[in-house]
Amino acid sequence: MAQHIRMNTKKRVLVALSGGVDSSVSAMLLMEAGYAVEGAFIKTWSAPWIPCIWKEERRDAMRVAAELHIPFHTVDLSKEYEEKVVRYLVDEYRKGRTPNPDVMCNKHIKFGSFFEWAMKKKFDYVATGHYARVEPIKTESGMEYHLLSGVDTEKDQTYFLWNLTQAQLSQTLFPIGHLKKTEVRSYAHQRGLVTASKKDSQGVCFLGKINMKDFLSHYIPIRKGDVLDVQGTVIGTHDGAEFLTLGQRHGFSVFLKSPDSPPLYVVEKNISDNTVVVSERDVSFPGSLHTIPLTEVHWIARPAKYCQARLRYRQKLFSVTVTSHPEKGYSITPRDVQPYVSEGQSVVFYSNDTCLGGGILG
């Protein structure tokens, strides 16, 4: 555990208990470190046509709190979640962009409304089960907080946390960031936690594992459109360009296809014409960009001109040059051309295992 987590004993910490093993072990480790721990379940929005799972998750969170003998709260942020995450998700797809709801969930819910709720209740820290680390560093101007990748590179979640501020990091704890997932489960089994063998949650933040097309079809009407090859020839159909993202290899039909046919990927979309262009992976296409414009750029500590980046969760880091344009924001120039670049994606900056910040492809 990071040094400041070990030393600040008897401080009040509110742990976001999701009902999963990661947050359960986070609460347990903080208790063992001497903190005054309380747990809170975040109740979010539930689509009326999706089986309700939040009650089961809340029940598991309550069981963990009971096992650890800590106070338990339920924080109802369903309205905020619908306004800040669900509407954003639907609006972005409707525009033909590729949103990242998990980024917005962390920004507006966990480290937005939930964090603010905790601060109003006079907690010293908020803790979550993210695989990430906070490193405080003394500088000439005071303390500076860095966001580091989780030690378990397969579980590292800093890609979704690039909007965190210095103020938030100074009052945030990630108790399992220094552990491998196998170690987390081992701790849970050793302590007999009810969530020890529970499967990891999957899918969109708080919505669970859903079929995105099925979800979006409740907001965006299905409309048949043409699938084109790079020469512009109609070779298939789809149910709506809004439902497809660049790099996707499913969700459309091709007329003439055999078991030996190479996989085809969406490389271009036209929302107004309701068409998509597909191609084999190794063919040059418009989705490859040399210079990528960005909006909503946020630096966690200080800007960097030369760094590394990733466009997708767990994508291998690639080198970039970050350019600031007066009155026009930022752009990045990757050393190697990046395929399947879609507006709306998060670009996250790194210096080795330090997350520097990020931005939105504009």
Descriptive report:
The strands form 3 sheets. A 6-stranded antiparallel barrel has the order 13-16-15-14-17-18. A 5-stranded parallel β-sheet has the order 3-2-1-4-7, sandwiched between helices. With 362 residues, the protein is α+β, with helices and mostly antiparallel strands. The chain contains 8 helices and 18 strands. Helix 2 packs parallel to helix 3. The protein has helices at 3-7, 21-32, 54-68, 78-94, 101-120, 166-170, 181-191, 212-216; strands at 12-16, 36-43, 72-76, 125-127, 132-139, 142-149, 172-173, 225-228, 234-238, 252-254, 265-270, 275-279, 292-299, 306-310, 318-325, 329-334, 346-351, 354-361. The longest helix is centred in the first third of the chain and has 20 residues, at 101-120.
Residue share in β-strands? 25-35%
Count of all domains: 3
Distance between the termini: 37 Å
Structural class: alpha+beta
CATH class identity of the largest domain = Alpha Beta
Shape: globular
Order of helices and strands: HEHEHEHHEEEHEHHEEEEEEEEEEE
- What CATH architecture label of the largest domain applies? 3-Layer(aba) Sandwich
Q: Main β-sheet: number of strands, strand sense, barrel status?
A: 6 strands, antiparallel, barrel
For CATH, the homologous superfamily of the largest domain is named as: HUPs
Provide key terms for this protein.
362 residues, single chain, 3 domains, Elongation Factor Tu (Ef-tu), domain 3, alpha+beta, 8 helices, globular, 5-stranded parallel beta sheet, Rossmann fold, 25% helix, SH3 type barrels, 6-stranded antiparallel beta barrel
